[in-house]
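S1.2 Input.
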Amino acid sequence: MRLEETSLTQTSLLFDTS
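S1.3 Output.
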């Protein structure tokens, strides 16, 4: 897993949760 992919995934989850 790349750091960029992890960051994007976490960001996506945050936006999805909001």
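S1.4 Remarks. The two ends are 25 Å apart (CA to CA).
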